[in-house]
């Protein structure tokens, strides 16, 4: 199967394209080949998006929303198929694959609802017989750059608010997961979305991503990925005066207080640290535990970890799938070596798994380090794999300080039965998302998603806040006095 670009409502394979293999991370099988597009492809796709946008902006928002209802319905109808493709291509276990597709369906229906709101404001004018209002205006063509770890959900977080608000988009999915983009393009076609509203260009960040950011007709860039790449996107976007929305890394912690329900905390930690093999930007990669319960927590974690079956995510009983590719596997393992060198105690895991069939895929043993000090690299840097560091503290204040002592600020969580501790923590934890008595993952699509510090640049995906990325405020003054009235100037 050869995956080519999709723009102007057609599958495009213009000129000499180079192709690269898409591999199943569970067993190395080649699933497809994907076109590595060029700047010329981007120019053609943007031209199609620009042409379509003029008409699309004139379609009333509730009518634009009708397409989203249809897209959501089709996603629901094909949910199992989409989840299967997702698991094959990205590796997450099928239960999570279904969950991710559901996240996309939820986003379709939620943003479709926004089509009948898209609220503006009326504001009293300072002059008589004058009416003042502000509306959310579409911006134009928006560029979406999405990662492989949530190939459907994150694309829907960005593309659905963009189109309901009257923009058209050009989307560059990650090269590792183009099949999900192909599936979404088929759904856009089937839903009858007008040609040029949704456009997909495959290829590398350095060529295609750069061309999108530099293109004068792409007005907004919404990016999710690593902090390293994100800061390059911001730099280039800044140079070209683009509105750039960034969603980047995390070093998310679960705080376990001395009065916590430890069994519940263990469930929360295991799910958020090892679900998706730790490859979520919201994944728990630090546990900050009160010294009075540290030993008990360690024992309970070890006991429960035995139940984590590892293997191909398509097998329903498997709890942890592979990581995305060999490069990721090596990066994760390098952190185990760093942790050992730094003097942390390896409690469990810490190795690449190669027994039997696992040798054909990219499997890493769920890993816990303990006696980690807050400044070690394993406690500071994003690993993006199933590796978690236990850090001991003596108080809530210290726990909050350790939580905040990293350059990221996406998600955090606290397990405690003490309402005073909980309320203090939700106020003082410097992250965009805070959970109480739950792990660090599992954000719902109708709340703003994003983080502070090195995680983002103040914008949010999801929730009504996402509309701020894809709209611009336009203020309109209507004077019905029949004479020239001048603001700020006394005319009496
Ligand atoms: C991500 O890891 O990039 O909150 C997104 C969660 C999911 C989305 C994660 N709903 O874990």
TrEMBL record:
A Pfam family hit: Aldedh
Domain of life: Bacteria
Keyword set, alphabetical order: NAD, Oxidoreductase
KW Oxidoreductase (keyword) present: yes
CDD domains membership: ALDH_AldH-CAJ73105
Active site: 247
InterPro entries to which the protein is assigned, alphabetical: Ald_DH/histidinol_DH, Ald_DH_C, Ald_DH_CS_CYS, Ald_DH_CS_GLU, Ald_DH_N, Aldehyde_DH_dom, ALDH7A1-like
Residue ranges constituting the Aldehyde dehydrogenase domain according to the UniProt record: 18-476
Enzyme Commission numbers on file: 1.2.1.3
PANTHER family to which the protein is assigned, alphabetical: ALPHA-AMINOADIPIC SEMIALDEHYDE DEHYDROGENASE
Family of this protein: Belongs to the aldehyde dehydrogenase family.
Subunit structure: Homotetramer.
Protein name as it appears in the record: aldehyde dehydrogenase (NAD(+))
Lineage, top ranks: Bacteria, Bacillati, Bacillota, Bacilli, Bacillales
